[in-house]
Amino acid sequence: MTTGETPHAAPLDLPPEAPLSGPPTLRPRPAGRQGRIPTRRPDVDVVVDCAVYVDGRRQEAVAPEDALAMAEERGGFVWLGLFAPTEEELGAIGERYDLHPLAVEDAVYAHQRPKLERYDDALFMVLKTATYVEHEELTATSEVVDTGEVMVFLGERYVITVRHGEHNPLADLRQRLQEQRDLLCLGSSAVLYAVADLVVDTFVEVAGAVEEDVDELEASVFSPDRTDDIGRLYQLKRELMALRRAVSPLEVPLQKLAERPIDVVPDAIRSYFRDVMDHAIRVRDQVNGLDELLTSILQASLARTSMADNEDMRKISAYAGIIAVPTAIAGIYGMNFEHMPELDTRWGYPLVWLVIITACVLLYRGFKRNGWL
């Protein structure tokens, strides 16, 4: 079946064996735009898990194409988990669940800003995930923070999670959530809360790990040893910026979920989103504080480097001044004039050495006393 031949009004009648095609309304991406991250491996299925939940209990296994009908029939909701779907794969699912084409487009192409959008009676939320990259030693090229994305489509009878990035899998989250039947009884919005809570909790862990790196660099900058930490400081500041871009924009979407009346988000779960928002604000403040601290440490490192350079210049100037004394005396007495009275003096040579040594010692003591040497 080619694109455009599938009727948009009756996507649920698609036979399971029919090839799925994307909606023709997707706009072409601008040239040079970054693509999805990462490309799914050939051995990984796009559908990670699919289940119908009724009264907080997971029902028997069901095919993805039949899940929505079962959920509507039994008064439950579908949780469909996807990993890095292609445009055709998510487009076909979008037709089946009546997802907005613009939201489908954003879910296919990654590098989205955290946001919450409302399309009629459905929600679309983008969350950026983060993980801390372990390293033996922080260098000027170390990767510290790795980011991915999770998109969530939320309707009354469905919740679809689309994950980009190898980290932050949702399988463990699904297992833990299935053990909390009272939370799942609140509907599909409970899954959105659980995903947002997991993402923010991960931010807390990443921020704590980055803080240890900041403490290490701070100790190195202010240590008695002379070190060059500017490259490492700048790299860590860049990595922290990636975490900041994931955390800072999340406050507004969470505030909307916690305070504004939304049909698919019952009042009973708003307090849960308010708790997640509080955690997100604390992480945002922590990340901003780390960024300001890194800026201060970077300025201190630059100032220390400048002071060290000035100290080196003072030492060079001091030794140059000391060496100038014998150089000047030797230059004067090396002019080879015939009538130089000091040349015939018996004690002229030792006297010149005495003058040179005395002048050099006095200059050395003076520079040493003034901190130049």
How would you portray this structure in words?
With 373 residues, the protein is α+β, with helices and mostly antiparallel strands. It is 50% helix and 13% strand. Strands 2-1-3-7-6-5-4 form a 7-stranded mixed sheet. Strand 4 and strand 5 (122-132) form a beta hairpin. Residues 1-38 have low confidence and may be disordered.
Percent of residues in helices: 40-55%
The helix/strand class is alpha+beta
Q: Which strands sit side by side, in order, in the main sheet?
A: 2-1-3-7-6-5-4
> Any idea what the radius of gyration is?
35 Å
Q: Tally of extended strands?
A: 7
The shape is rod-shaped
| Largest sheet features | 7 strands, mixed
- What is the CA–CA distance across the termini? 84 Å
Helix-strand topology string: EEHEHHEEEEHHHHHHH
**Average residue-wise pLDDT:** 83
Low-confidence stretches: 1-38
- Tally of contiguous helical segments: 10
What portion of the residues fall into strands of 2 or more residues? Answer: 5-15%
What attributes does this structure have?
single chain; 373 residues; seven-stranded mixed sheet; 10 helices
Q: Topology, pairings included?
A:
Layout: E1 47-54, E2 57-58, H1 64-74, E3 77-83, H2 87-97, H3 101-108, E4 115-119, E5 122-132, E6 145-154, E7 158-164, H4 171-178, H5 181-184, H6 189-221, H7 230-247, H8 251-259, H9 270-332, H10 348-369
Parallel strand pairs: 3-7
Antiparallel strand pairs: 1-2, 1-3, 4-5, 5-6, 6-7
